[in-house]
Write a structure and sequence with these properties.
By secondary structure, the chain is α+β, with helices and mostly antiparallel strands. Helix content is 24%, strand content 34%. It has one domain (3-79). A hairpin with a 5-residue loop joins strand 2 (14-19) and strand 3 (25-32). The protein is globular, with a radius of gyration of 12 Å. The relative contact order is 0.23. The model has no long low-confidence stretch (mean pLDDT 95).
Length: 87
């Protein structure tokens, strides 16, 4: 999968974009574990993507829920045993 980023919020530290092949929208947040820095990707619905594209506060709240691991059912890839922390 290739994740194409369309928007970056430096203030709230998240990305919005679409997976290139499927066109599915996603939100990404930076993470770090003991070995690497990486991005966790969460699938969004089209409605969420459209809302978040114009409402940064709603998107920041969603990103914070992802950081708290409240939205893990939407993870694109399940984390391994050394899951990172938000960076």
């Amino acid at each position: 999968m290739k994740f194409v980023k369309a928007y970056l919020s430096e203030t709230h530290r998240y990305w919005l974009g679409r997976e290139e092949e499927s066109g599915r929208p996603f939100l990404g947040i930076p993470m770090s574990n003991s070995m690497i820095d990486y991005i966790e990707y969460y699938w969004l619905t089209l409605d969420q993507y459209e809302e978040f594209a114009v409402d940064e506060h709603a998107c920041a709240a969603f990103a914070d829920a992802c950081r708290r691991r409240d939205r893990d059912e939407l993870l694109v890839y399940q984390p391994g045993p050394d899951r990172g922390v938000p960076s």
